[in-house]
Amino acid sequence: MRSYLSLIKISAKIRRRQNRMTILCIIFAVSLVTAIFSMAEMGVRIAEPNLLTKYGLPKISVIMNTGMGKSLLPVTIFLFILVLIAGVLMISGSINSNVAQRTKFFGMMRCIGMSKQQIIRFVRLESLNWCKTAIPIGTILGVVVTWILCLALHFAVGGEFRNIPIFGVSIIGIISGIILGIVTVLL
Predict the structure, then answer these.
(1) pLDDT, tens digit, for every residue of 146-169?
(2) How many Å apart are CA 64 and CA 160, to the nearest integer?
(3) What are the C-alpha distances in Å from 58 to residues 7, 14, 36, 50, 171?
């Protein structure tokens, strides 16, 4: 063992069962934000053909001045903040519980010379290690949820939702989910 950081992979293998709850919290937070922003973008894509005929080249400012844009943006931001707060609380509670269960391990690490900053760095890197698996699963789940919602709107509701892209992929939704996953773990 060259560094104390090489213990992260060993700890992840040993504590796989205890880490599942934290990974599930990250997956749910990422998938919710991915679905929220993806559905908002799909709503913009519905209105885009009408805006093209009316205004020519639609810009973000034109979209935000429409009724849909004025109602969609605040709801999306509110839901993002709500999921961010819930994600931070769930993940921090799970991490705190995980750390509290391993007081002997961290006490032993302090005895052999690990500083408080090194312990904090160890826990932070261990959490980011969970993100390696949780964020891709969460983004895929969020995209699938978006597809299901778009299918339901297209076939069940109809009307103006006939133009919704059924299997559209939102880069904004995916990036938002990734950012939320990393930020919630670091907070």
Answers:
(1) 999 888 888 887 777 777 777 888
(2) 19
(3) 52, 53, 22, 10, 19
Angstrom distance (rounded) from CA 141 to CA 143 = 5
Instruction: Write down the pLDDT at residue 38.
Output: 87
CA pair distance 130, 172, nearest whole angstrom:
23
Contact present, 25 and 87 (Cβ < 8 Å)? yes
**76-105 mean pLDDT:** 83
DSSP sequence for 154-173? IIII-GGGGGS-TT---HHH
165-180 average pLDDT score = 85
- Residue length of the chain: 187
